[in-house]
Task: structure prediction
Amino acid sequence: GAVVSQHPSRVICKSGTSVKIECRSLDFQATTMFWYRQFPKKSLMLMATSNEGSKATYEQGVEKDKFLINHASLTLSTLTVTSAHPEDSSFYICSALIDGVSNQPQHFGDGTRLSIL
Amino acid sequence: SQKIEQNSEALNIQEGKTATLTCNYTNYSPAYLQWYRQDPGRGPVFLLLIRENEKEKRKERLKVTFDTTLKQSLFHITASQPADSATYLCALGGADSSYKLIFGSGTRLLVRP
Result:
């Protein structure tokens, strides 16, 4: 149980392209999801908290117009990297919380490797 | 500012031995601490959660301790196996009303056959 699917797993595209990453909870409802960015051998850095039906909450220093988050249903959140540039290349990971469960872990997807040429 | 420290150097041990990983933190009062395993190119997988009022938690070959006075957690894997080789992340949470976690940078464990 508690499976989170992230798609695509890898994206290679040209500079200036916008890229959409999907995060789906397959067997549970998730009002709250999180988006992280991870550099090689570094910690997961929280980018934003995604809330179904409301605006995402972005961490300090994260450009909300650059990283658009949409959480339109209880099982899907999307992250769109707009006008991506080489410095946006990274490993992006989402996680989800099961609705109605307290003191629980986060359930992670398998990440998206984004490479901007 | 909040800081979480995990040993950045890889831990290299012989199969069958006990692996002990350390997580230290400062400027934070977590309600709970979590340990995750991360394999290369994959997302983290939850292992154990320990609350601030708990001293120790066990699950099969895994044991976690939590000392809020020392601001430290120890993560033990007994009878280690090569399949245990991975990066292990500690994460703190619950200091505020959100469900956000703050992650350490992880310690890479290598278990030699």
In short: The CA atoms of residues 49 and 68 of chain A lie 12 Å apart. The radius of gyration of chain A is 14 Å.
